[in-house]
Amino acid sequence: MTAGRRAGVTLKDVATAVGISQSAVSMALSDHPRISEPRKRAVRAAAARLGYVPNSAGRALRAGRSASIAMVVPQTGRHVFGHPYFMHLLVGVTAEANARDAALMVSTNHDETHGVAAYERVLRSQAASGAIVASASISDPNVNRMVDAALPVVLIGRFPHLPHAASVGVDEVAGAAAVTRHLVRDHGLTRIAHISGPLDHQTAVDRYEGFRGALAASGRPCTHTLAVGDFSEESGRAGARQVLDSMADLQAVFAANDEMAYGAMLEIRSRGLRVPEDIALAGYDDFGVSRLTTPGITTVRVPARDLGRRAAAVLFGLLDGAPPEPLHTVLPFDLVLRESCGRHPVPGGSAESPTVPPAPERGTGDSV
After folding, report:
1. d(Cα 93, Cα 239) in Å, to the nearest integer?
2. Distance between CA 256 and CA 177 in Å, rounded?
3. Interatomic CA distance for residues 98 and 139, integer angstroms
């Protein structure tokens, strides 16, 4: 380090000095055409004055050397490695890391009560050049710490309170609305229960919002009730027990993931009721269980592998000094219709209808 340069100067320090966002600083330093020449000169001057040195991982990647990235999941290792969503994410992240000859570390928590451990392990060790954060709760302050640190970070999911952070996700509101509209419009069901995920997670909040919004926009006199689960099969069964006991003449259950939908199916059958003849059923994710039940479960297919791969690609771009365009990438979903909500006849007599075309990708701008 040359005389006058001090260690630890971050992109955030340069952004504060110039009065612009960190992403704008990154674009200015990479000579991005969206940044004006006067602004680029101001950023370069501030970087030189403060002694800012670009991320060493980016330099390594540009020189053809390997780097390491981290995937931070503030859950227990047992939860992460036992849940199909995270395994699909990991497959996608690993594929991109392997293509870049980069190592991947996965940081989880020791138990359910020490959420800081997964973050601290990455921040303190400095073993990773950048990080991907998945499945963080809305109120988790450690996400803000990661984003504000010098470490490049990409978030998986929607974080409305961090609009300046790069993210990759799916429009969960639109996905939940699509399956709810199908229940109401195509099957005429108006008394529907929702079993949500934990409502301190944006994914669960968005899916519940999409469900309620579709009911309100249906133009029909719909009634709904809510049970809150934790995305596990057990909570799906408990949630079904709650809504079946509390709502007379219940016609359908929409669970916020397929594992809870399967738990709901078990509870419905334990009462001598049939799916879909007595109670229609729908889930969300399409990671496997929805295809193995009889009847198969109508669901929303989330491209988890693509989410992982795209998040890793965005992170490597950040490490290489290339800010993402757009800042918030939204991947399309598919509505997959199966027999759990009623028959969908198709040519040839197949029980499963063709997949509904994916929603338009909103990749040309920020997610909402």
Report:
1. 33
2. 12
3. 33
Looking at the structure, do residues 195 and 155 belong to the same domain, yes or no? no
Identify whether residues 192 and 270 lie together within a single domain. yes
Asked whether residue 180 falls in the same domain as residue 137, the answer is no
Secondary structure element (H or E) that encloses residue 334, with its range: strand 334-336
> 153 forms bridges with which residues in the sheet?
131
Residues 280-334: tens digit of each pLDDT: 999 999 998 999 999 999 999 999 999 999 999 999 999 888 888 899 999 999 9
Please tell me whether residues 23 and 140 are part of one structural domain: no
- Measured distance CA(359)–CA(97) in Å, rounded: 28
Give the domain range for residue 96.
62-170+306-331
**Claim to verify: residue 130 and residue 208 sit in the same structural domain:** no
Report CA 126 to chain centroid distance, whole Å.
Answer: 25
Cα of 79 vs its chain's centroid, Å: 16
Q: DSSP states of 106-172 as a string? A: EEEESSSS-TTHHHHHHHHH---SEEEEES--TT-HHHHHHHHSSS-EEEES--TT-TTSEEEEE-H
The pTM (predicted TM-score) of the whole model is: 0.77
Neighbouring CB atoms inside 10 A of 283's CB total: 31
Which of 312, 290, 310, 293 lies closest to 301 in space, CA to CA? Answer: 290
The two beta strands, 252-255 and 299-301, are unpaired
